Amino acid sequence: MSPITIxxxxxxxxxxLDKVLYPATGFTKGEVLHYxxxxxxxxxxxxxxxxxxxxxxxxxxxxxxxFTKNVPPGTPEWVTTAEVPRSEGPAxxxxxxxxxxxxxxxxxxxxxxxxxxVLAAPGEADRIVFDLDPGAxxxxxECCAVAVWLRERLRADxxxxxxxxxxxxxxxxxxxxxxxxxxxxxxxxxxxALEAERAMPRQVLHRMTRSLRAGKVFVDWxxxxxxxxxxxxxxxxxxxxxxxxAPVTWQEVEExxxxxxxxxxxxxxxxxxxRFGDLLAPLLTTGPGTGTVPPTG
Length: 297
Description:
This is Non-homologous end-joining DNA ligase. The protein is of the alpha+beta class.
């Protein structure tokens, strides 16, 4: 029988706490749960009011992985769920809005992925995202140069951007937006990806075509589509080591000369939070820097 623990007044069954999920470092399931408990205060605001998709890897990154958007079987009745519109018909998805729900989901061993909209307005984007994905031998170092170009281009339109590592090879660029549909934001993001490619043809590609990607940074603008999701800030990733999609400063981006400078594991995050707080906190408000997406035409 799995042990029972009480989290924020909820009875939660946890299991296999000594199971090694990341063999490269010996990082266990218990450490996964501990990590999510430590970062809950900064992670939950980025999850709240957004339906969550799960990439589950219960036997570690080297085992079976499966991606699910529907409410998993056995979900406790106290975990919030919501009906979400989809082109193939509405679906019910999980919404992680408190510590108990977060720890229940962490016990399933998951990456957390969220869309660029909230439940109150599923057709309207409140964020724009660019996933900068390097094709070898390019690395996150080349992604940083592209990120700086995109930051300045977005700033010219009154939109302030923030960066985080993907937790894999690349970099994510995010900004708060308002007053536009997901389709309009996606079209605007594509336009900027094309502009980046024209400005830096040797470094940037706006298409996913793998045969063209060697040595270039693919600027993936498509994750702004209403049906798409992106790794949530602070989520662990299903990699060989317990890497994290970690917010970074623009100084770190500008000064990056080696991929190791922007590689962060679970154990690195508490100290970064003490030093910087949540670098993506501005995305949680509609204050200065939240931009209006110009019409594409």
